[in-house]
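Students often ask why we bother predicting the structure of a whole assembly rather than each chain alone. The short answer is interfaces. A chain on its own may look different once its partners are present, and contacts between molecules only exist in the joint model. In this exercise we take four input lines together and write out one structure for the complete complex. Read the inputs first and try to guess which parts will touch.
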Amino acid sequence: MKAVDILNNHNLKRTSCREGIIEVVMISRQALSENEIREQLVGNYDRTTFYRSFKTLEEHKIIHKIVVDNQCVKYALDNTITHKGEHAHFYCNTCDSVQCMDKVPIQKYQLPDGYSDIETEVLIKGTCSNCKQENN
Amino acid sequence: MKAVDILNNHNLKRTSCREGIIEVVMISRQALSENEIREQLVGNYDRTTFYRSFKTLEEHKIIHKIVVDNQCVKYALDNTITHKGEHAHFYCNTCDSVQCMDKVPIQKYQLPDGYSDIETEVLIKGTCSNCKQENN
DNA sequence: CTGTGTGCAAACACTTTGCAGGTGT
DNA sequence: ACACCTGCAAAGTGTTTGCACACAG
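Now the answer. The structure tokens for the assembled complex follow.
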């Protein structure tokens, strides 16, 4: 699936900014921050444009946002595109990377009577395999 | 355990702001935002003072911060005070409340090789028992 | 051609920092 | 008395909004 097709499928206009964001995020094995995305894009875009593009892509469930500690914001391809289901996110304290743990499904939590759950977010913090190696 | 004792135990000076925050948070069954805390406090305090007080109390593990969707910030008594262990947090989409699910322990997630976890945050979003009743 | 996306400037909200003066111990 | 807390002003940062122009369909 190409970025252009994704945009078409969602009836979104094909603009270089949107297309670029999707491509960059699609290739990356990690969730990326606005700046990391900017670095990998060919054109140069205003911050406002990024914000609006992220918002649009998020609303159409093309990408999803992961927030760590109220300040670090990263984006990754959404489940509806990857078809990998709901998963936990991993944040590495050492290298600040965020990874979608496709193989770590969200577990079911038993809530008290009267509570109904719609969505569960799991963020695991620790050291990723890359950073662990470097410590040895 | 009174608020004053908690401050003493952590070698923190007893100021009305800190004492008030702890008392309000301790009584509440829900996590509270800065404004919700302000409303229940007797004195009036500058935002800066709040920020610094929250920071201090957080660093001493007297309260902990829960962030929903990168914008909604709430505070609750920390585990080390309540002695109730790590638990999931519940966010009600209807009334915007955040509750500590003392009875919902964090489950163990099996990470890929090389990853080590230090801390796991679980935020369950849905409808709380209060809001469910009102719909009936 | 028409509606939508983009860039720029300005506004806004949250948080942090510096400093002078006040308070707890 | 001294260290530290507080309030105020200002700066810093992330995000949103209004508007004119550009571009996709």
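Check your guess against this: The mean pLDDT of chain B is 95.
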